[in-house]
Input
Amino acid sequence: MKNNNTNSRRKFLDKGLKLGLITAIGAVGLTKIASKLNAKTNEGSTGKMELMTTDGTIIEVDSSEVMEMDHSKKQQHEEAYDMREGMPNRKFVMVIDLAKCKNALKCQVACNKQHYITGDHAWLKVYKMQEDTDTAPYWMPTTCMHCDQPACVTVCPVDATFKRRDGLVLIDNERCIGCRFCMAACPYSTRVFNWSEPNQGDITMLMDMENQTEHNSAEFAGLPSIKGTVDKCDFCPHTIKNNELPHCVTACPNGVFYFGDKYEDTVTNGEETLRLSKLLADKHGYRLMEGLGTKPSVFYLPPVDRLVDFKEGLESFTDFKSVD
Amino acid sequence: MKNYDKLLHDLAPQKFGKKGVIWTISLVVLIVLGIIAYIDQIIRGQMVTNMNDYALWGVYISNFVFFVATSFVATVTVAVLRLTKNSWRTPIVRIAEIISVSAIIMAGITITIDMGRPDRLMNLFIHGRMQSPITWDVIIIPTYIMVSLLLLYFPLLPDFGLLKKYYEDKKPKLSKWYGKLSLNWTGSDNQKAIQLKSIHIIAILIIPVGFMLQTIDAWLFSTLYRVGWDSTNLGAYFISGASVAGVGALVCVVYVLQKAYKLDDYITDYHFDKLGKFLVLVCLIYLYFNLNEYLIPQLTSKKGATTHINVLFVGEYAPLFWFVTIGGLIIPVIVLLFKQGRKPLPMFLIGLLVVTGSWWKRYLIVTPTLLHPFLPIQGVPEEWRHYFPSLHEWAITIGTLAMALLIITILVRYVPIVPIQKTADEQEELELNKNIKS
Output
């Protein structure tokens, strides 16, 4: 009984396999015939074509044999720059040397001017910091931290604020619904809101000046700001693209700001170019509120061995008004 | 057979008297003022509010949280009292359901008032992302609106059927409407079985949905880093707070309707007594979570927490904080512990106190936290360190509150406040029991 059973099963398998093989061959054959038939119909309508081979000889081929290669399409696609993906293979970082800052506020003036923002809503702030009465005071400029774990991006309900591969956190103010959840989420209080129609002057003229054809302002110096949406420091993608430094870096008379690429491991303040990893290791670089786990792209060097007196900066410090 | 005549005469919706008309007109006036203010806000931008880059949320959000909290009343009274078989709930559940529907609809409307770009509302659906707590809110609020509407509607079917017959000669048009709404209710056993089952399913369903709604509302804050919001306590804190706001609102509305419609035979001192005890219970639970929220951080006294709590205990917001805590929680508990305190009039006054306290409580949850960010407030105008709503904000907020009351008023005008059929059934049962005993 048992033997019989297994035998019949074997036979069945054998037959099945053979049948499968035959159908497979048959199918391949059929498609071949079909494709040939197809090719023949094509032949009638097109002629011959001259092509150059890689070694330089000219050959003539049937134009029906010529097909577009896949990767040529892909290449085109790669060239089309995706604003939400950012610049390929870059990771922008900033280092702020607190030992050098004396609250000259040139960074803020330049930032406000270049981004057409008013003082009350300045993107870049210089804080008078003193953690405790027993510890030393110092000046601390803050930009957007462009966090690698950005709280603002997590809570945005419509993906209006987004994180790019090159490290930048930007805002698509054509999509923002103005719920201000990102502002509440940001522990660095870096975001500002356009409570009324932004006072930027003649927008069309300004946009012409910036050679901005697209309306989307995420990469264009905050132009135009839109009523009822959120703005913040954008790390100046419009200057980085031209291989220039952000406005605050170039404007600072004391070389406080260093800007660069983490993958290249270099940062520069316009005067000196340094190894990022060495700089952070040597000078004990740290990031603001590391404990929150936001992983900022902005590093700070502690205010040690200061070249300037803290009190000098007090002259230009006003409690209630930032520079316009 | 059952005698519905007296019941129908007492409980069928009545036309407004003189007071009712004045009340409705003044509500409409307040709403129109609110709408005018809102249109101005849309034209000029939220410049017309006193919000700024630091106090980035204001009275709109706290008012929204208040509405969400109040809408919890259907969950705590209808569903929970139903499951625990507390039969004293019969004459007040309909009112609770009406408040709930009105509050949750208004919550949906008020949240859009806070948006900078209400014209882009559709982006929430086009570009919506699941990781944002706002998207969770967008899902749960319409769900709760639907569930609470059904919870109001299903038990109404037999009453609509009765009203159809009642108005057949007097007002044929109205009778036709009630007939349509009653979905051909005949009162057959089959229909009754389906209706009972549906009510039971909805009454159970509204508990998890209500809990989710309150918790998501809490998570809008506790998913952020800010001191005062970043608390694991917040979900339970909001649920218990919502019970207080809801039952408080219920007490007020029940009292007003009892007086306005002379329902003394149906809503009696007994019901107020029970409601009073219930209010004490929810207040005590909320008090417990308040202790967790304020005293434990004060004990470990981390720097940020101490600053925040000092502002509440002794600083700028101390008067409001102690009004909300003592007036809105402790005094109600003490007064309602006495039998005399659970009489209708004192209950009404306590109810008003609780609702006012609950409204300001939301204000205290939203505003002081925003005014104490991690980095100091510097380099901005002096007035940005404080926040108090502007005239526009008050007009709009009062408009929304008036609109909530108007929804309640309209529903009360056309819907029997006390379930007629259920009352009749219970009366019959009572008679039956009496006969058996004698």
Remarks:
- Chain B touches chain A through 45 residues (CB under 8 Å).
- Residues 19 and 260 of chain B are 9 Å apart (CA to CA).
- Residues 16-424 of chain B form a domain with the Formate dehydrogenase/DMSO reductase fold fold (CATH 1.20.1630.10).
